[in-house]
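Technical note accompanying the year-one report. For the benefit of new consortium partners, we illustrate the data format agreed upon in the data management plan: each record pairs a sequence with a structure-token string. No post-processing was applied to the example shown here.
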Amino acid sequence: MTDLDHLTQALARNLKRWRAERGFTLDALAARAGVSRGMLIQIEQSRTNPSVGTVVKIADALGISITALLDFDRAPQVRVVPAEQAVRLWSTEAGSHSTLLAGTEAPGPLELWKWRLMPGDGSDSDPHPQGTTELVHVTAGTLTLMVDGTGHAVPAGASASFEAHVPHGYRNDGAEPVEMTMAISVPPPR
């Protein structure tokens, strides 16, 4: 079985579990997430490998982190994630990629990411739930952080924080790769 097969099966199992814990019908979750009922059925039956955007929308609608949807079991008090178990969720042919390093559910979903953006590459994100905050720290290159249509230059060594309930994205408009670490904190569901 491949890593993708394990990921698809874990996603199916965890989506069913979290949907049941939240008491959401397929229709209710589809409406909250802005994802079709058919897509949710395909995910729960391990028949599709959804896009990162779809997984983010579902996690946001459930009020959990992406980590919770991809984990095989609930996390213990201390969880060490070996490098080979970090999950690469986005990549381009140019060599850009994002890797989910770790995450937790208390008090709300909190995720830690490692990103690499090659020159000319970028990634856009849909708005997250109200109260979501993102932190980025750039270790190489200059990140163009787009927040609600406005670009902000974040050079190596600098950090930025922003409220992520608006459209946002990450671009590399420079000539060298951008390396950054990002944390995302999502408020617990109400």
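Partners are asked to follow this layout when depositing records. The radius of gyration is 16 Å.
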